[in-house]
UniProtKB/TrEMBL annotation:
This is Uncharacterized protein. It comes from Hymenobacter nitidus. It comes from the Bacteria. The lineage of its organism: Bacteria, Pseudomonadati, Bacteroidota, Cytophagia, Cytophagales.
Length: 71
């Protein structure tokens, strides 16, 4: 069972993805890649400053979209 922090982080990541459909497009094309990105994002949100959630997710998306991360 998911604890409250994990549930809150997962919901924040899902909401962010819905609000930013143009981000992490290369990950959205492959379900396994998107799942890995979500898991990393959830971990980062849980361990980061709660007031920096949007910044954390934007940074992770930028990293995923970078040329070094492209297939």
């Amino acid at each position: 069972m998911e604890n409250q922090d994990a549930k809150r982080a997962r919901l924040l990541v899902e909401q962010w993805l819905v609000a930013h459909p143009e981000r992490v497009l290369n990950r959205r094309r492959k379900p396994a890649d998107l799942l890995n990105w979500k898991l990393a994002a959830i971990h980062s949100v849980r361990t980061g400053n709660p007031y920096d959630t949007d910044d954390i997710l934007r940074w992770l998306a930028t990293q995923a979209e970078g040329s070094a991360m492209e297939d």
